[in-house]
């Protein structure tokens, strides 16, 4: 969908296809975690796939992506195959990290500019700004997109990155997935302002609030922000309002939560919204293919060998 | 303390022991309070602070945003103003997101200002490898705290020590980094009933007396060293296992006198080998007991690698009981 | 001047007295550095004494002070004597840090709630917020005032402290001495907004810009902010516009600077402005006393013994 | 390298050598660029980057705001995008204000992502005691960098090594922490004329051959060890001085073979003694050469205290030539 000239309809179809694929992936992973468990934690992104895919659909293939820890929508939308993603999750040699990831993943794909993830929240603020500084220096015309949660917005790295990126007019776009929770902390109790985007003026950059359940709207504002960045006008802070449907990690019983949305009733479900404009039979066809793709990839990942101990000594230094 | 419980001891978990220490000290001294992420409503990511919000209210059990520099730096400022903050970082690794606050502010404020202030802060640090938490959620970083003067460092290995050392830490006027091992949270053991079960810093525990080889181990490694000792006993090697319990201050005397009897020492730790605290213990023992040693001090340690995000692979990065046994056999044979 | 009921005139006289005393101290220190030098660096605060004294004059004796590294105005205004301040500067046993300070100082006075200073800029953002959290917990009614420079405003600790302090409504007041420079970096080149105070709305707190050369105006806005904090309404960010008259440290030749104000021509000199309302003879009397006080204290500090090596092992642990 | 200059060597300062390395590497490779506080118009607080802004322009020599997490974390991100950032922190101590970026991002990104990325970042760190800069501007923190796997660590002691190691660091695909000693900036020495004067990491330099006692020293301590050796020679103690030059990788072989000849080892460093890298070197040498040693390895180190803000007092916190002499005499007498 990044090639020039697809129609609006084509774009929406492709966004739908990716979102629904990730939805099936979410369900498949949950099933696995409930039955088998695996190491680390799985942070489900169900219900947030729409904004992830919508935003990433606005990126060019060469643009850089720093994703957040909630789900796989970002990476899949950026072109990564499901099998290496599942492989990471399951600690398989075929995972994109070659077996060093498992559960909570640090998947990456250098060729697709999926840049990986740190375990400490907020480190991608400064890293993303630095990647954008490299693009500015090289004049490669690339834009860096950084996803983060409402909780991560509290880290000081945000401030250091945002000030410098604004002053240098770095080509970076920050997308906050505000799902209202940071683990057990309600956003409303940890933010003095209504929106994360209210912090943008402090940095002299645009702050945009968008309905995160509306994938195409997220795509639109992201397109604008990316164009602005590519024109050399500097960063934008986008805040996509969404919901955390499940627990912080799969298995979290959320004793702290007074509004648990535990089932699969996803308010304002991005899958449904995207599906609305699509003819029933087309949609059913896409769904069937997506489900098959997920099943094939998950089975293949499951069948792949686990990494043996020798990998622990690989890749410490180049 | 031997495995057999004294009559007044209950058998409780390491987590529960920590939770009791917190509650008792907060009851004892109104100036004690806590802050950290998710410690209130949730009771902490590892459940260590459960029930404390209910008993002590939201002003003494405060949920912060995701802001480690505030959690630690704020604790420093709050300590200067007459309170005793006991703060939690969700993972010990996060001391790197508050390193200026820990290694500069906590460690040096008193010194830089000519002793005018005290800095009674406890930073609780869930540490070590368990369950595949990955390279930035599993490290054993206690050596760094040992290298920077001004901090005290506790590394409890049993429920009893977890409780007694934490109570000592809270009563200590100096900043304490309290490394609780995540892999021990569910381990149970005897803990004295008393409210005054305070384990002084700087006194090592002889976890198992022995005559042929001294093994110094901390945290999760104490049990593995003890298990190794049981395997070695039938092979004629009687291992003495010493748990220093605190690294700062370090009870080197107990270690040295043990080595003077056994003539051999092995240090076992989960932290990376290179420049880990095993090197310091080895260096000190060589300095003080060189001529009593029949062989060099050996170290069995974590690998010099980051930790992979996989529960099996990460175990391959830290010493197993088997490795300890194998090394002990080889060392005893020198 | 903190006791209830002094007249406006009395207050101004006292502020003048303190400002002019610090001015003489600045000149005396400069003379010493030029002739003898000393270890570390001396960051002159000449020209910024007005705002420092004005602001601190709004504090109660029990309020907590975290000062910044430029000059001695803050500490002197908070009640510290000159001799221990000079003693620190000169590495004397009689310094407030007992000989551990020298040059760039970490003076402190626990009894006067002068809380000291870290060597890393911006660490007082979080420490000050924490001190205020202690006051809130203890209900002691105290307010914490934190000074910082425009340069220090770039550190992420600002963000972490400001968000939390605002949400918790902590009794803390932040005062930025914006002197236009952070070492060789112009504020205008390192800030995306015109004012540091423009960042306040991001934290839902008042941001106030004030003429830092007008000591009494600074006093006024600080009084308001402190009252607000004491009422439990949370933090305020005050930005006092001032100038860095000299180099970053005494001896800095400022090769980077295109507007050097090297002499003692202090634009909008706070000493002159404060002196305007005061009768000549009264002013001359104050000046003479101030100069004598400075000379006595400096000579006494010079005559005091240096610390011997044994102090290095003191105060590492309690 | 001996003190005598080869014919093609010029005698230049340590600062100048660093400045040359930066300029040459930026000329050689367009991807190399720099950021840091005051490195442009001012040429750095210590003058190390003078002239570079003029030659390479503001896009390759960028002044940042006061934001160490951006300087290091940004460098990490910029390295992933095909550039080679060489960044300056104004004082080595400030690695604590960017610790997550250094010890997590730089050190582990490659590993965590299965080797898909390389991390060619150099962090220049003006280190050590000089002129009374105080507790948070004077520390020697290289041991911490040695303990955390994934980083490389250089500690140049001469102008020649400063230049050659920095060039090697910039060409290295791994993150390098480059500890430049502030007390050496003005020291002059012979430096080869060549643009290709690259000193490989992991090869120690025998600064003075000797037969009676090996002294391992780094940074500012190398000259003090050499001065001590001159004082000891007339007393019949012929000291071999070894400068490892890099701590990661560490050329332990050169040290061990020296000890096998001299049978005695002393490690001298400015970093605090406890859990400093001297302990690691001591531990390794004991492990590998225990039976060749006539005495335990000794350490002469910085005190276990913060550093006072006073040029005299701070000198009392680090080893002097006299202390080295005294310790060497005592060690030789064992
Ligand atoms: C620096 C840091 N502090 C704390 C954590 C632990 N942690 C992991 S996820 C999380 C909550 C994140 O909330 P948010 O950013 O809103 O993302 P969400 O989980 O809601 O998608 C926390 C506290 C961490 N990984 N890093
Ligand atoms: C974290 C940190 N980074 C850098 C420095 C070095 N440094 C000391 S003062 C200074 C400039 C400060 O500027 P500003 O905050 O505006 O205060 P001013 O000197 O203008 O009063 C710098 C960069 C430091 N001390 N701490
Ligand atoms: Mg969230
Ligand atoms: Mg300034």
Concise summary:
The complex is a heterotetramer, with 2 copies of chain A (318 residues) and 2 copies of chain B (334 residues). With 318 residues, chain A is an alpha/beta fold.
How would you describe this structure in keywords?
heterotetramer, A: 318 residues, alpha/beta, Rossmann fold, five-stranded parallel sheet, 10 helices, 10% strand, globular, B: 334 residues, 2 domains, seven-stranded mixed sheet, five-stranded mixed sheet, 11 helices, 20% strand, disordered N terminus, binds thiamine diphosphate, binds magnesium ion, THDP-binding (chains A, C), Thiamine pyrophosphate-dependent dehydrogenase E1 component subunit alpha (chains A, C), oxidoreductase (chains A, C)
Task: List strands and helices in order, with pairings.
The complex is a heterotetramer, with two copies of chain A (318 residues) and two copies of chain B (334 residues).
Chain A: H1 8-35, H2 49-56, E1 64-66, H3 73-77, H4 82-89, H5 123-138, E2 144-149, H6 156-168, E3 172-178, E4 181-182, E5 185-186, H7 187-190, E6 207-211, H8 215-230, E7 236-241, H9 270-275, H10 280-303
Chain B: E1 9-13, H1 14-28, E2 32-36, H2 52-56, E3 61-63, H3 68-80, E4 84-88, H4 99-112, E5 122-127, H5 142-147, E6 152-154, H6 159-171, E7 176-181, E8 188-192, E9 205-208, E10 213-217, H7 220-232, E11 239-243, E12 246-248, H8 252-262, E13 265-272, H9 277-289, E14 298-302, H10 311-315, H11 321-332
Parallel strand pairs in B: 2-3, 2-4, 4-5, 5-7, 6-7, 10-11, 10-13, 13-14
Antiparallel strand pairs in B: 1-8, 6-12, 9-11
Helix pairs in contact in B: 1-6, 3-4, 7-11, 8-9
């Amino acid at each position: 969908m990044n090639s020039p000239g697809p129609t609006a309809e084509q774009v929406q179809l492709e966004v739908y296809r990716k979102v629904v694929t990730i939805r099936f992936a979410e369900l498949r992973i949950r099933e696995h975690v409930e039955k088998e468990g695996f190491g680390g934690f799985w942070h489900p992104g169900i219900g947030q796939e729409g904004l992830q895919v919508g935003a990433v659909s606005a990126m060019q293939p060469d643009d850089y992506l720093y994703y957040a820890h909630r789900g796989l929508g970002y990476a899949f939308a950026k072109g990564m195959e499901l099998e290496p993603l599942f492989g990471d999750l399951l600690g398989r040699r075929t995972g994109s990290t070659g077996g060093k990831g498992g559960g909570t993943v640090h998947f990456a794909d250098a060729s697709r500019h999926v840049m990986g993830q740190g375990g400490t929240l907020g480190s991608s603020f400064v890293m993303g700004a630095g990647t954008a500084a490299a693009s500015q220096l090289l004049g490669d015309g690339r834009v860096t997109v950084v996803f983060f949660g409402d909780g991560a917005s509290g880290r000081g790295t945000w401030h250091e990155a945002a000030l410098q990126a604004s002053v240098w007019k770095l080509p970076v776009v920050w997308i906050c997935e505000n799902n209202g929770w940071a683990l057990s902390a309600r956003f409303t109790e940890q933010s003095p302002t209504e929106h994360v985007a209210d912090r943008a003026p402090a940095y002299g950059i645009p702050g945009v609030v968008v309905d995160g359940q509306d994938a195409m709207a997220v795509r639109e504002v992201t397109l604008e922000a990316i164009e602005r960045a590519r024109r050399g006008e500097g960063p934008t802070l986008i805040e996509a309002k969404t919901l955390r449907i499940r627990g912080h990690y799969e298995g979290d019983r959320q004793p702290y939560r007074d509004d648990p949305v535990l089932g699969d009733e996803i308010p304002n479900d991005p899958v449904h919204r995207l599906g609305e404009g699509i003819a029933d039979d087309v949609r059913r066809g896409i769904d069937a293919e997506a489900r098959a793709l997920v099943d094939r990839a998950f089975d293949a990942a499951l069948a792949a060998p686990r990494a043996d101990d020798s990998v622990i000594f690989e890749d410490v230094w180049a | 303390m031997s495995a057999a419980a004294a009559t007044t001891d209950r058998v409780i978990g390491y987590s529960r022991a920590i939770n009791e220490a917190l509650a008792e000290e907060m009851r004892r001294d109104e100036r004690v309070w806590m802050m950290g992420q998710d410690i209130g409503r949730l009771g902490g990511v590892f459940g260590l602070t459960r029930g404390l919000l209910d008993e002590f209210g939201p002003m003494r059990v405060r949920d912060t945003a995701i802001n480690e520099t505030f959690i630690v730096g704020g604790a420093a400022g709050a300590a200067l103003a007459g309170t005793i903050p006991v703060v939690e970082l969700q993972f010990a690794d996060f001391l790197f997101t508050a390193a200026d606050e820990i290694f500069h502010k906590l460690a040096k404020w008193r010194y830089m200002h000519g002793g005018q202030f005290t800095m009674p802060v406890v930073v609780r640090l869930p540490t070590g490898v368990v369950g595949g938490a990955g390279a930035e959620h599993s490290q054993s970083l206690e050596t760094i705290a040992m290298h920077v003067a001004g901090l005290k460092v506790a590394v409890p290995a049993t429920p009893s020590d977890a409780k007694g050392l934490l109570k000592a830490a809270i009563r200590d006027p100096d900043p304490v980094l309290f490394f609780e091992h995540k892999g021990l949270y569910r381990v149970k053991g005897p803990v004295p009933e008393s409210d005054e079960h305070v384990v002084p810093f700087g006194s090592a525990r002889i976890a198992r007396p022995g005559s042929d080889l001294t093994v110094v181990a901390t945290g999760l490694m104490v049990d593995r060293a003890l298990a190794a000792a049981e395997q070695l006993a039938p092979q004629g090697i009687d291992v003495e296992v010493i748990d220093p319990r605190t690294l700062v201050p370090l009870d080197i005397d107990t270690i040295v006198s043990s080595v003077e009897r056994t003539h051999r020492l092995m240090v076992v730790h989960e932290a990376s080998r290179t420049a880990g605290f095993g090197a310091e213990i080895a260096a000190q023992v060589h300095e003080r007991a060189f001529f009593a040693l029949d062989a060099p001090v050996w170290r069995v340690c974590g690998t010099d690698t980051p930790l992979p995000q996989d529960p099996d692979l990460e175990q391959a990065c830290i010493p197993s009981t088997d490795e300890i046994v194998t090394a002990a056999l080889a060392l005893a044979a020198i």
